[in-house]
Prior knowledge:
This protein is α/β, with parallel strands linked by helices. The chain is built from twelve helices and 16 strands. About 30% of the residues lie in helices and about 20% in strands. Helix 6 (about 165-175) crosses helix 12 (about 335-350).
Amino acid sequence: MRVFITGVGVISSIGLGKDAFWKALAEGKSGISPVEAFDTSNLGRSNAGEVKAFHPRDHLSAAEVRRMGRCSQMALAAARMAITDAALPEGALSGPRASVVLGTTMGEAGVLEDLDHAWIAKGLPGVRRAWIPKYGSTLLPIHVARAIGAEGSVLTLPAACAAGNYAIGLACDLIRAGKADVIVTGAAEMLQELQYSGFVRLAAMAPTKCQPFDLNRQGLILGEGAGILVVESEAHAVRRNARVLAEVGGHGMTCDAYHITRPHPEAAGSIGAMRQAIERSGLQPDAVDFVNAHGTGTKHNDAAESKVMRDVFGDRKVPISSMKSMLGHCMGAASALEAIGCLMTLETGIYPPTIGYETPDPECDVDVVANEARKGKADIVLNNSLAFGGYNSVTCLARPGKLPAPKETTA
């Protein structure tokens, strides 16, 4: 069964909404700036892809803002953008055939930070009761489902920084299994003090900028945001004469089963995920036109991903780019936001750049789209997510009509 993407919504550090997001990506605009959400003066690092233009009351009611944490607010705002973009009619998302599947890494852990600071400063009386029901990663899809009336599966996938791809893949599986007709999917993540200080302590945070695949790269830069997509079965989309933005092909999911932070030196899991995504799309590797790399800017991750590219594509150098150079690493939301960037590449034939790329690294012998966007063939693209804990998830996205017909299966 074919699965189509018919709408997208974006909250990001480089723009709100699909058009602003894509314009900034294609122009190589950086969303990295000094953090304002919390004090970084004692951390030795101060930059992040913080979303500073998001004002919840522009997108949510006063009651919704009161009962939700920032992560849920961004998820719902992006979901409403995606639903509008999909031109879904009134009531199309209500009932048991509509579902919500979202990914995140830490969800509303920022609520616990607020609670902790208040408790330390004022004791238990300083803890507001209103904070308690705002906490929990499970609330992200619940808030969205409540707002749109979806009564089907409501799921949270806390699959580290592969969560967005995991959510999109599971949503497509539910549709192909006949368990839903339309699903709001993707991921959201908010910038949090615990997360930020943790990456500083891991010595994984770059001082000022993220330079994926560059010889002198010094680490990642954290980011935040929400990327939400509306996915529909072919029958549902055709029935309502929907505009199709892209088709979702196969997806690969594997685990390194090796180390909590470091990728496997042989990269077998990552290679397997890429091959699965290609093969399950009914394709050969030479059909892939562009790869959005995981590209965190850390020494080990970029080197391992370069090995993966060489193993999967051989001597053919497929153009790759890392949107994290502009967005920062948005953790659970990363691959969902990047999926939307891939979708826009399919629509425009423009490969977004990897900014900050200055000195090639012999260990990363890949075709990096460096500093300026590049025009090229864009029928089939891969979206890589190779996360902490060995979570590997790769999704194949295609221009409508460019994938072979899916094979019919029988029970």
